[in-house]
Amino acid sequence: MTATDRRTVMVAAALSGAIGLMYAGVLSSLVLQWASDDNYSHGFFVLPLALYFAWERRAALAEATRRPGTTGLALIVASLLVRLAGVLGSDLFLTRVSLIGVIAGTIWFVWGQRHVRILAFPILFLLLMIPLPAVVFNQLAFPLQLFASRVGETAIALAGIPVLREGNVLHVPAATLEVAEACSGIRSLVSLVMLAIVLGYFTGQGTRGRTLLALAAVPIAIIANAARVAGTGLSAEWIGPEAAQGFFHTFSGWLMFVVAFAGLLILQQVFARVGQRRGRMALARLA
To answer: Per residue in 38-79, pLDDT tens?
Structure first.
């Protein structure tokens, strides 16, 4: 290693150590929430995947010219101010999201803008490990609960079963079913979006294909959860109230997630074939 390389490594190590000490509490709170909140249990997979995506870019990073920039230092300072605002306002989301800015700023400050561009995807992927603010989560969860309950009401009524809906509560002759926050579909939605991004990455989808696949995961997850609620209501009436709770209820959640992922795989194949067809048409025009 040259003297410049050694200095770069020492600076990077010092900054990494400082970041680790400053954000130790933030990281520990993240891990605790991943372990205790099923809505964000996918967070355990985000960091290893991001590190893998960064490792895949090691050749490009080695070839990139180091051009440290003071803009990176400005980004670090701005991110630390965001962290300070989060601490003073008792806002976990701000303190956590500031970590992403500090990481990007450190790479920019030590190595340069080119390195940040190469690592843009792994850095942005880290955002998936940060839980949504409670205000945003509640604004999303309740409308999804109402949508799922409306779909369930319609499906049960079409099956010829008397049903009465009161907000997010469905009354059928055999049972009373509440579409609780845990059944809003947020959990499967966030997990499916992450899987869509990973699927698009490993199947060689371009930026446009990855974006379309991630966006398509949202309606797929919502529809699958609504179908689960409808199926739960029908099962409670045809099989018995026990079908709406315990093992059967949990199993239906896993089953519908698998169905949703299968739908995502089919959609990815459609996108891939459309891309291949467009490529062949472009080559034919050039010929």
So the answer is: 888 888 999 899 999 999 998 898 888 888 888 988 999 999
Buried b (16+ CB within 10 A) or exposed e, 16-39: eeebeeebeebeeebeebbeeeeb
254, 237, 236: which is closest to 245 by C-alpha?
Answer: 236
Map out the domains of the chain as residue ranges: 3-131, 135-286
**DSSP calls for 157-169:** HHTT---EEETTE
Residue 227: closest CA among 170, 173, 149: 149
CB of 66 within 8 A of CB of 111? Answer: yes
Report residue 81 as tokens.
């101010």
Task: Compute the Cα dihedral for 226, 227, 230, 235 and give only its sign.
Answer: negative
Q: What's the pTM?
A: 0.82
